[in-house]
Amino acid sequence: MAASDAVPLPITGDLDLHTFRPAEVGDLLGDYLAACAARGIGTVRIVHGKGTGALRERVHAWLRRSPMVESFSLCEPGSGGWGATRAVLVKRPASPR
After folding, report:
1. Of 86, 91, 65, 62, nearest in space to 13 by CA
2. pLDDT tens digits for range 57-72
3. What fold characterizes domain 17-89?
4. Predicted confidence (pLDDT) per residue in 3-54, tens digit
5. Cα gap 22→56, rounded to integer Å
6. What's the half-sphere exposure (Cβ side, CA atoms, 13 Å) at 23?
7. Beta-bridge partner residues of 71
8. What are the start-end ranges of the H helices in the chain?
9. How far apart are CA 56 and CA 66, in angstroms?
């Protein structure tokens, strides 16, 4: 995707991957989680859908390797169940003033 094609995403702590190609997931997750952390959002819900599970596995593999992620698990039934993952971000120390 060219920079001119970039679509700004609202940083709310909910990321819906339905409109993205699997190849875009790695960069997107890194950028989005970094933006959430910068805004003090400590928990992020990533909606990957149920489908075949391929996108979920790609997301989980990325989360396992990320130093930004403390833990993650599938969401509870009312928040997407196995079609979404909740990631808890590593708490950053407060910056001295």
Report:
1. 86
2. 999 999 999 999 999 9
3. Ribosomal Protein S8; Chain: A, domain 1 (3.30.1370)
4. 556 667 789 999 999 988 888 898 999 999 999 999 999 999 999 999 888 8
5. 10
6. 1
7. 88
8. 25-38, 54-65
9. 15
